[in-house]
Amino acid sequence: MSLEFIGLIGPQEGSESQAPRGPIIDLPFIRAFAQAQEYGGFDKALLAVNTSAPDSMILATYVAALTERIGLLVAHRPGFQAPTFAARQFATLDHLSRGRASINVITGGDSGDLQRDGDFLDKDARYARTDEYLQVLRNTWTRHEPFDHQGAHYRVEDNLTLVKPLQQPHLPIYFSGASDAAVEVAARHADVYMMWGEPLEQVRERIAQVRKAAARYGREEQIRFSLSLRPILGATEEQAWERAERILAEARERIGIRQGKRREKNFGKSNVGSERLVQLASQRKVHDTRLWTEIAALGGGAGNSTSLVGTPDQVAEAALAYYDLGVTTFLFRGFDQLADSVQYGQELIPRIRALVAQREAERQQRRA
Q1: Is residue 247 part of a domain?
Q2: Quick check: is 143 in a domain?
Q3: What is the rounded distance in angstroms from the CA atom of residue 177 to the CA atom of residue 217?
Q4: Three-class DSSP category at 105
Q5: Domain, as residue range, for 172
């Protein structure tokens, strides 16, 4: 199975444990961050979406100009613009980047964040809209004759978009969402189904659930799986856990979560994925020896917030266990974003690639 590593390119340095530094759009940081990950062997980098952050599509065009090889995984929320318009944007980016664009479809997320952009649909309605949105998006990319579409959310007449993606038949579609409604949409449309870092058994069950749903559309062998994690590395295991505790103390000081504030009204309840992470964190601080959940507990399971903690060799072995379950894409981002991305490129990614190559060689020998 092919192996893929995704990083993150944000507009400003900062994290749960690190106060923002520099301007909100820090051009030297973006350049350094993007080029460090390209040099370090990341295959793609995520450009995330949030109502308070700079626009992911525009940032991606800037990063495309700064880099030569790294792919651009652009987070995108269906429902905020016409799917035909978004299809033209992504196809254009694919040409400008010489075939490096991908789309990360974000339907859920923090309900409060969606409402700040004027989206008040409930979860099931949002996923129904996303299902229709992706069908129109795909038609816009692939149809070479004018097409019409009339559905519950979108109506299109006589559309023929001349700019098609450089990648054929269309851009890779990465899809996030943990609810049953999300799994159904992923089964129909996703090339890669993205999961947050959970224990091995839960990841095994999720992969089986998604593959079973994809089988209804004849896609069980087509869909791939991604896992998002926050590795915390140390020269020794003890040093790695000491660093994790420092990160937690810094994050507690920074976040200072207080119930009742406007942006915390959905704390831990904004989506099924967050609820799952909060539940895992309530059970124990560490799962499967080194899956650390304390930041997830502190932040209400917001986003990619669980960590693999240990030496580079130990974390690589833990990643291999997920690979054995069917995970072939890993999204890694750190708490000290730039420094961690360099360390991942130097010490972690090469080790995981070597372990996977060894595992595949062993499988080839058994089949021979």
Answers
A1: no
A2: yes
A3: 19
A4: strand
A5: 4-230+307-367
Average confidence score pLDDT of the chain:
92
Q: Is 117 helix (H, G, I), strand (E, B) or coil?
A: coil
For residue 196, tell me if it sits in a domain: yes
Identity (one letter) of the amino acid at 53? A
First-to-final CA distance of the chain: 17
In a domain, 278, yes or no: no
The tokens describing 357, both together, are 């190559």
Q: What is the pLDDT of residue 255?
A: 76
* Separation of alpha carbons 227 and 249, rounded Å: 26
**How much is the pTM?**
0.94
pLDDT value of position 256: 66
What are the tokens at 211?
């593959």
Task: Find the CATH number of the domain harbouring 312.
Answer: 3.20.20.30
Q: For 220-233, what is each residue's pLDDT tens digit?
A: 999 999 999 999 99
How confident is the model over 90-135, as pLDDT tens digits? 999 999 999 999 999 999 766 577 888 888 888 889 999 999 999 9
176 - beta bridge partners?
106, 194
